[in-house]
Amino acid sequence: MSHSFLKESKLYIVYGGNKYRIYTTAALSYSQSFAEDSYPVKTLHDQSKMMEGTTITKANPAEFSFDVPLTVEKDESIVMDLLSDLVATSESDIETQQLKSFDMYVQTGSSTFKVDECVITSATFNFNPREQFKVSLQGQGIKLTREGDETFTIPGNAQSESSSRTPLLTYPVVTLDSSDINAILSVTLTIQNDIEWNPYETLQKSQNGDMMFPSAYVVQKRTASGAVRQYQLDNNITNFDDFSTNSNLIIKAKTSSGNDYWTINLNPVMYTARMEVEDYYTQTYDFRCLDNTALGTRITTYS
After folding, report:
1. What residues have CB less than 8 Å from 47, skipping those under 6 apart?
2. CB atoms within 10 A of CB 103
3. What's the pLDDT score for residue 97?
4. Best CA proximity match to 14, nearest among 112, 108, 101
5. d(Cα 110, Cα 122) in Å, to the nearest integer?
6. What's the whole-model pTM score?
7. Gap between the Cα atoms of 46 and 26, Å rounded
8. How far is CA 181 from CA 231, 242, 290, in A?
9. Which of 131, 140, 228, 277 could form a disulfide with 61 if both were Cys (CB 3.0 to 4.6 A apart)?
């Protein structure tokens, strides 16, 4: 008998018949919970039954999260594709936009777990020149199962990996309406996909004792938002308490050699600038994109 350690876990994504090994940090988690329905059992003739009975026939969506360090080789580019692009589906002559779904496998020292039909609900980028550039992902899936032991063969055509994985330090360059924002302290960007799972509880399945899992969802809205924080200096003090509802924002992650590694162009955006009083004065631009219909094409540098 042996323990399973998180640091030994391997993450795989299967999408479009292809299998990708995704290297993550230790920030990897996945789980699924079940919904309980309680009911009273005390009757007029038996007042002693104070406890309630329960039935468990419904599973909540599976939850997962992991951090992916981005590298020079860009072997993890499939992640960027899954978090940003939508696919059009048609049902009853009504065209809808859906997220790209994939299967996630995690191999531990003793088991292989699978989360069916995953979608990414949130992706956060932190542009910090003191840390390796990475993306933090959260998502949901239909069902978490144990497929077998650590020797289980994960399906899909294995995609080739680079012979090396080179970590990357980047620094942010931000342009707002053709003007550079200088003296930057930090930049964050979050892509949020708000989804709602369709009702999937039926009387027939409940009475049969079958476990009911979610099967379909609706994308309610998409949001690309974040904040740019800068020192307040004598050459940017005129931007104090500024705002706009129609601006063009470009965020770049540049390498130490000055090359563009990752770029997103958000247009139009709204923003508000607010001052913060600390040991030193700072200013924060809180922004939100007003047109997220083609978010994948707005990431103009990363391939």
Report:
1. none
2. 19
3. 72
4. 101
5. 30
6. 0.86
7. 53
8. 10, 13, 21
9. 140
